From TrEMBL:
Domain Ig-like: 16-109, 312-397
Subunit description: Interacts (Ig-like 1 domain) with NRXN2 (via Laminin G-like 1 domain) in a trans-interaction manner.
Comp. bias (Low complexity): 208-217
Descriptive protein name: Immunoglobulin superfamily member 21
Length: 436
């Protein structure tokens, strides 16, 4: 007797598709059995998923999880109505026939096929690394966007666009050891004057300008006072003022792509785009992360617009604060959509905060049991991200609390006694004047 077995190859399938595994065989012997195996753990385990026993003419399943999922279309065909990621892997079809000569000997042959199950990404998001982060007027900053794609199998192709145009980026296989060793270039500087830069920074060379200032003639006003102490810059000058940075060429982008397997068989892909941020040209720039995947009919994308904070909206509760109340000052939002997440810093103008600290970080400032001395105090909230900063002020008005005594006179009633004495004295003087 002869027996040849083969399984038709399958193209990659998408999660949820119906798949038919067909085992073709030729023989001149009598059928004994057909057994389908699912191979796991690198071929060390073979799990029966379907058996056809010709001796008893019975069809049954040896795998509880596959019950109600296989459908015997023909003797050599098994159908999986809805494939899952867990169905991914090799399958084998074993066929046995009786030998025509002895009728007791069984001849066996098998075929195998690999079922490649793909899954489209289920989520995509773009976020900024190292947020919240401050804004710097005096030195260049590296900025990184991170695109996270989850739920895909195999790993997707991820790329970035700026204002709808693909970004040509330099591959960066390993994360940078330090910003100074791989920064695209130093920034040039012009129109520098002592209303924009603290003299101490200029004297110590902390402008982040490399050797640009060392080779050029120092601007007028800085040369004579390099050794002076730090000068306080008026807040009206530096508020929301962008630095005058000039790039010699278009930004140089660096791209890095990694992926990590997940326990459910999918892959989480992370793509990072890093460049030297220039608030003048990057503010309100639209960046998008796009994903191509064989299980997707069209690219999947997520986009963000880089925007500096503008016009914080501050609320104070209670709106009419009294002595002894707990006052909460909260930033509820902005006049615009801000990205990346801002950093909030609270200060009290001309003095320290109620707890004695110079500043407080966070979206909310809480003043516990405010005293009357805080009446009229001004609080400043600085909101900043790598693209810019803005200040908003609010004044605290504290009203008297009738439930709190103003002093010891109210508690012992002496003030009331004085008022009664003065009233009696006025009446006595009136009577004496009338008699005279």
């Amino acid at each position: 007797a002869y027996l040849t077995v083969s399984i038709e190859p399958l193209p990659p399938v998408v999660v949820g598709d119906a798949v038919t595994l067909k085992c073709n065989f030729k023989t001149d012997g009598k059928m004994r059995e057909i057994v389908w195996y699912r191979v796991t753990d690198g071929g060390t385990i073979k799990q029966k998923i379907f058996t056809f026993d010709a001796m008893f003419s019975t069809n049954f399943s040896q795998m509880e999880n596959y019950r109600k999922r296989e459908d015997l279309v023909y003797q050599s065909t098994v159908r999986l109505p809805e494939v899952r990621i867990s169905d991914n892997g090799p399958y084998e079809c074993h066929v046995g026939i009786y030998d025509r000569a002895t009728r007791e000997k069984v001849v066996l042959a098998s075929g195998n096929v690999f079922l490649n199950v793909m899954a489209p990404p289920t989520s995509i998001s773009v976020l900024a690394a190292d947020t919240p982060a401050p804004f710097s007027r005096y030195q260049a900053q590296n900025f990184t966007l991170v695109c996270v794609v989850s739920g895909g199998k195999p790993a997707p192709l991820v790329y970035f666009k700026r204002d709808g145009e693909p970004i040509e980026a330099t591959p960066l296989p390993e994360p940078p050891a330090g910003a100074g060793s791989w920064a695209p270039r130093n920034l040039l500087h012009r129109d520098l004057d002592d209303t924009k830069v603290p003299k101490s920074l200029a004297a110590e060379g902390q402008l982040g300008l490399g050797q640009a200032l060392g080779t050029a003639e120092p601007p007028r006003g800085l040369a004579a006072e390099r050794d002076s102490v730090t000068e306080t810059i008026p807040e009206t000058v530096v508020s929301r003022e962008f630095p005058r940075w000039v790039h010699v060429a278009e930004p140089i982008y660096y791209f890095r792509h990694t992926h990590a397997p997940v326990s459910d068989g999918t892959v989480e892909a992370r793509a990072t785009l890093t460049w030297t941020l220039n608030p003048q040209i990057d503010n309100e720039a639209l960046f998008s992360c796009e994903v191509k995947h064989p299980a997707l009919s069209m690219p999947m994308q997520s986009e963000v617009t880089l925007v500096a904070p503008k016009g914080p909206k501050i609320t104070m509760t209670p709106t009419r604060a009294r002595v002894g109340d707990t006052v909460r000052i909260l930033v509820q939002g902005f006049q615009n959509e801000v990205f990346p997440e801002p950093l909030f810093t609270w200060t009290r103008v001309g003095s320290r905060l109620l707890d004695g600290s110079a500043e407080h970080d966070g979206k909310e400032l809480v003043l516990e049991r405010v005293p009357a001395e805080l009446n009229g105090s001004m609080y400043r909230c600085t909101a900043q991200n790598p693209l810019g900063s803005t200040d908003t002020h609010t004044r605290l008005i504290v009203f008297e609390n009738p439930n709190i005594p103003r002093g010891p006179e109210d508690s012992n009633g002496s003030l009331t006694g004085h008022c009664g004495f003065r009233l009696v004295l006025v009446l006595t003087l009136t009577v004496i004047l009338e008699l005279t």
